[in-house]
Amino acid sequence: MSQSLKVLLFFTICMGTFFAACKDPEKKNDGSDAILNQPPYAVYTDSLRQAGMASPNTAALYLERGDLLAQNNLHEIAVKDFKKAWELQPGAPAGLRYASTLSIIGRTDEAVKLLQDCLRRFPDNRNFSGLLGTIYLQSGKTAQALVLYNKLLEADPSNFEAWYEKGLLLQKTRDTAGALEALQKAYSLQPVNTYALELAHLYAENRDSKALALCDQVLAKDSSRELVDPLFIKGIYYSNTGQYARAIVQFDSCTHREYKFTDAWLEKGIAQFHQKDYEGALATFKMTTTISNTYPDGYFWMARCYEITGKKEEALMYYQEALALDKDFTEAKEAIKRLRA
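^ that's the sequence the OP posted. Answer follows.
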C-alpha cells in the first residue's frame, strides 16, 4: 500500500469516528462506555443491546442499571439512564430518580423544571413536591418553597409532611412563631419521634419547658435506651435557662450512650465554662478535639479557656487553629484581632 493511500485511509477512519461522536452528543469520551461494559453493569448493557428501543422492557432495564450506577456514586452516568427511562416511559419512578439525580449533580434548574412537570402529571404523588421543596431550600429559594408548601396545605390541610417542611423553612427564616405553629400541626397529625424532637429542640432554644415533656415522651418509648437526641435537647434547655448542673447531667448521659458525640462534649464544656470551672471545661473541650481533630468549635473554646485564665499565647494559637479549620469563623477572627491588639 502506498504512503498516500495509508494517509487517506487513516484520515477517513478519524473523520468517521469524529462524525459518529457528533451524531450522539451523549457518547462523549468520558469513560462511561468502558464502565458500562464491565461487571456489574455489563449484563444490563448486553440486555439493552438485544432488546432495542422498541422493547417494553427497555425502560425498566435503564432504570435498573441507573439504580446500580447511583448506588456506586456514578451519578453522572446514572442520570443518562434515568433520562432514557423517562423518555421511553414517563412514569413516576423514572421521573423521581431522574429529578433527584439531576439535583445531586448540581443541575438544579433542570431538576426544578422536571419536577414541575411531574407535579402536573402526578398531582397526588407527594414525593415530587417534597423533593421540589428540598431543592428550593438548598438553593436558597425560600420564597418559592413557602409558596409551594402553602399551595400543598391549601389543597390538603392534613399533609403532615408539608407542615413539617414548612416548619423547617420558617426556622431558617427566623419566623419562630410560624415555625412552632407548623411543627405543632405536623406533630399533631403524625406524632413520630422526628417531629417531636424537632419541635422540642425549637422549644429548648426558646427556653420553653414544653421541650422537657416532649423529650420525656420520646424517652419513655425508648426501651433499648439508645436515643441520645432527647437527652441532648434537655441539656440545651437547661443550659439556655442557666441550670448548668442539670445540663451537665444530660450531656453526660449522652456521652455514656454515644461516646463520640462531640456536640454533647462541647455543650458540657460550655456549661462548665459558665460555671467558671475553667480547668474542667478545658479538659472537656480537649476531649472534643481528641475525638475529632478537625472540630473547630473545640479549639475555639479551648482558646477561650486559655484567654480567660491569662494564657494569651496558648489562646492565640488555638484561635488560629479554629480559624484554619473554618475560614468563616467570625468569633475566632475577632478574638485573634483582640489578642494581637
